[in-house]
Design brief:
2 helices; 8% helix; binds magnesium ion; Jelly Rolls; five-stranded antiparallel β-sheet; 2 domains; single chain
């Protein structure tokens, strides 16, 4: 009997705690920020399809959204790397980029000479594209590397001729008026469903022949795809400019208890 009562009492106490966020029985914390409603975006049928607010850079038809597109080829809905890099006509700052790529099914060459291309954010910062399936090279030059800065955390590449997916979240570097670095670039990347770069802080650009450095540039830049002499294929390329949720601090954070509202500064003084 005693045990049954205890169970009922405990259940009642739990229900009070559980419902406290909506009741006047306990304090509620409010942050004092007036948030704008997040934009409503329609997802695609699959997560690899562009959401409704994406800018589609290649939809399987043509290279009209790219400079130098006339020197690359579109065949059966996919792009084949050609002569010289292609560069998106539109420029981006912070963004989410989806791109799918495939190294040639006929394996030729080795190391950096096998299925080499690259995705350049802002035209300057390369995440490597390479046939890294049973193909050893220096680790900070394999597929998914930020070239000469860091290898990917894992090698999850599919074999030659198969399709790989990069989903990239890019934070552009910021520069002061005098050209000094205000904040570096960061990249997070997911390859074929696994995180390969987690908020990696770039040391600068990614050339072959000198250390990385930041050379001031504008707050937007193009996406470029590298010509490294190998007929790497690309498809389904889309970008979403991104920005933090918008809100304004309209009052000091406070605690609400029924009709009583206590600013956090006072509430802290009360020793809570
Ligand atoms: Mg490359």
């Amino acid at each position: 009997m005693f045990r049954t009562c205890l169970t009922i009492v405990s259940a009642f106490a739990a229900s009070i705690v559980f419902s406290s966020s909506n009741s006047a029985l306990a304090d509620e914390y409010l942050n004092g920020i007036k948030w704008e409603e997040p934009a409503i975006v329609s997802p695609g049928k699959k997560n690899s399809d562009p959401p409704s607010d994406a800018i589609v850079l290649f939809n399987g038809k043509d290279l009209n959204n790219w400079k130098n597109g006339e020197n690359w080829t579109v065949k059966e809905g996919v792009i084949y790397a050609g002569k010289g890099p292609i560069t998106s006509k539109e420029e981006f700052g912070d963004c989410q980029l989806h791109i799918e790529w495939s190294s040639p099914s006929e394996v030729k060459g080795n190391g950096q000479g096998r299925g080499n291309s690259g995705v350049f954010l802002m035209g300057k910062y390369e995440i490597q594209v390479l046939d890294s399936y049973n193909n050893k090279t220096y680790f900070d030059g394999q597929a998914g590397a930020i070239y000469k800065q860091t290898p990917p955390m894992v090698n999850i590449n599919r074999g030659p001729g198969e399709w790989n997916t990069y989903d990239i979240i890019w934070t552009a570097p910021r520069f002061e008026e005098d050209g000094s670095l205000k904040s570096p670039a960061y990249i997070t990347a997911i390859c074929n469903g696994a995180v390969i770069l987690n908020h990696f802080e770039l040391l600068g650009d990614t050339p072959f022949n000198r250390p990385p450095k930041y050379i001031p540039h504008s707050d937007k830049g193009p996406i470029s795809l590298q010509d490294h002499g190998n007929p790497v294929r690309f498809r389904n390329i889309w970008v979403r400019p991104i920005a933090p949720a918008k809100g304004e601090q309209v009052r000091e954070p406070f605690i609400r208890d029924g009709d009583k509202e206590t600013p956090i500064s006072e509430w802290k003084k009360s020793g809570k």
